[in-house]
Amino acid sequence: MRHIGYILLYTVLAFVAVFQIFPIIWLVLFSLKSNQEIFAGNPFALPTDPKWDNYLKVFEGGVGTYFWNSVWITVVATGLTILIASMATYTITRMHWKFSSLVLGIIMIGLMIPIHSALIPLYNMFLNVHLIDNPLSIIITYTTYNLPITVMILLGFYTTIPREIEEAAIIDGSSIHRMFFQIILPLSAPILSTTVIINMIYNWNEFVFVNTFISSDAFKTLTVGIQNFIGQYMTDWGAIGATLVISVLPIIIAFLFFSEKIMEGITASAVKG
Amino acid sequence: MNKIMSNKWIIFLYTFPALFLIGVLIVVPLILSGYFGLMDWDGISAMEFIGLENYMVALQDAKFWESAFHSFLLALFSALSLILYLIVALILASKIKGANLLRKIYLIPMLLSSVAIAQLWIKVYNPTNGMLNSVLIFFGVENPPNWLADPDIALYAIFIPIIWQYAGFYILIYYAALKNIPQSLIEAAKIDGASPVQIAMKMKIPLIMNVIKVTIVLSVVGSLKYFDLIYVMTGGGPNGASEVMASYMYKLAFESYDFGYGSAIGFLLLIITLIVTIIIRKLTATKEEIQY
Transmembrane segments in this chain: where (chain B) (predicted)? Predict the structure, then answer.
C-alpha cells in the first residue's frame, strides 16, 4: 500500500518534470532539423543528420550583433545596479539618520508598480534628451528598475554584519569610503554574487524597454532581435529554433553552474516582499 | 564612531544616485502618466489639455473593460494554479529522492525570456506541425484546435505557457518554506497517528500560510502586469480575444500614436494594481503571526 502511494507520487513529479522539460528538448531537436524532417517526421525523433547549417545561417544573418549587445548592456547595467544599490543599502542599514526608512520606502515603490504605467512618460523623457535609439536609455532604465529588488536582497545581509568590524576599522583610522569599498563590499561577496546573477538574468531577458526605446538593429538586444529574425525566417523552422536556442543557451549554462545561487536569489527576492 | 556613522555628506553621497534614478525614472513618470492622461496628444505635436475626457472615455471603452476582464481572468487562474504548485511542493518536500534535481528541472522555464517562451509556444501550438497537434493527431484526434487563432481558446492557450513559466518558481518557494518546518513537529504528529494528508492540511499548510499569502499577492499582481508573452504570442488577438490592460495601453501609444489616451489607460492600470494589492493584503492579513 505504502509502495503504491510512493509510485503514485513519483508519477506526479515525473509528469511535471516531463511537462517542464519537453518543450525545450523539442526545441533543441527541431533546431537541428530541416523543414522536411520537422513536418514529416516524429516530433521527438533525433535528427537523422543534424543540420548545424541552421546555426551557421543564423550567425551569418547577423544574430551576433544582438548577442553582443545583450552581453555588454547586461554587464554594464548589472555593474551599475550592484554598485548603486550597495551604497544605498549601506547607508540605510549601517548609518544613523532620520530618513533612512523613508528612503527605503521610496526605493521599494519600484517593486509594486506596473512598469507599463511609466512607459509613455519615460519614452517622452528620452525623446526630449535625444536618448531614443541610444543604448544609454536602456542601460539607465535597467539600472534603475533593478535597484529595488537588488536592495531588497542585500538588506538582510547588511543588517547582520557585526558592528565590531566597523568599530575596529574606525579605530584603525579608516575612512567610510575605505571601510565600504575594502571591508564591507568584499565581506558581502556571497550575497553580491547572488544579486549579480539575478540582475543578469533580468537584463538578459528584458523586452519591453528595448522594444520601445531602440529602433536600430545595431543596438537591439537578443529578445527584440530574435523577433526580427523570426519575422524574416517565417517558415524556416530550423533557423527559428537555432535563434531561440542561441538566445536561451547562456542562461541555461549559467544555471548549470550557479543553480544554488540562482535559486537562493529567486527565493530571497520573492519571499521577503 | 557615532559621529562618523552619521556623516551627512557621506549619507547624501551614497544614497543620492539610487534616489535620483528612482525619482526621475520611476516616481516622476508614474505621476506624469496621470498628467499626460489629461491631454489630447499624439506624441509628436503639442499637447492639448482636455481635462478628464480620456478617463471618461476609458470608463465607457468596451475594449478597455474587455482587456481588464482578461487581466482579471488571468489573475484568477494564476491564483488558482497556486494550489497545484502547492500540491507538487508538498509531495516534493516529503522525503522524495532526487527532490533537489527535480526542483531545478521545474525551474528551467522560469529562466528563459518571455519572448523566447512565446516564440517556442507559438511553435508548440502550430496547428499543423506543432508539438501539441502532432501528438493529438497521432492519438487519432481528427480536427485538433487551431489554438492561438481561435478566439474562444486563445486566452486559455496562453495561460498554459504562463503556468509552464511560473510553476518552478512557486514550487521552489513553497519547497523552501516547507523545508523550514521543524521536523520534530511532523514526527510528533506522526506518532499521534496523523495521516500524511492530515499533516499536510492541518500542520504544513497553516505553518507556511504567510508564504502562501505572499505568493497570492505576487501571482495576482504579476498577472495584472502581463505583457511580453501575450504581446509576442498573439498581439492581443485574434480580434482582442487575448488583449490585456498592458498590451492595450502599449498598442494605443506605440501603434495608434494616441499617447494621451494610452497614458490614461497606463495610469488606470497603476491605480487598479495598487487597489488590488491593498485589497489582497487586507484580505490575507492575519491578526497574529503563527509561531513555531
Answer: 12-38, 72-93, 105-122, 153-177, 207-227, 259-280
Residues A81-112 pLDDT 10s: 999 999 999 999 988 888 888 999 999 888 88
* 3-class secondary-structure state, position B40: strand
- B288: pLDDT strictly greater than 60: no
Query: Looking at domain B22-284, does it have CATH number 1.10.3720.10?
Result: yes
Question: CB of B271 within 8 A of CB of B253?
Answer: no
B231 chain-A contacts, CB cut-off 8 A? 208
CA A38, A40, A42, A46 torsion-angle sign: negative
Note whether B129 contacts A38, CB cutoff 8 Å: yes
CB contact under 8 A, A270 and B215: yes
| Per-domain residue ranges of chain A | 61-271
> Into which CATH architecture does domain A61-271 fall?
Orthogonal Bundle (1.10)
- Give tens-digit pLDDT for B74-84: 999 999 999 99
Q: Which residues of B touch A97 (CB under 8 A)?
A: 6, 8, 11
Comparing CA positions, the residue from B38, B118, B169, B242 lying closest to residue A27 is B118
Domain limits, chain B: 22-284
User: Quick one: which H or E segment has residue B49?
Assistant: strand B48-49
8 Å CB contact of B14 and A87: yes
Give me the pLDDT at residue B291, please: 43
What are φ and ψ of residue A208, in 5° steps?
A: -70, -35
Reported as a single tens digit per residue, the pLDDT across B208-246 is 998 999 899 889 988 998 899 999 999 887 888 999 999
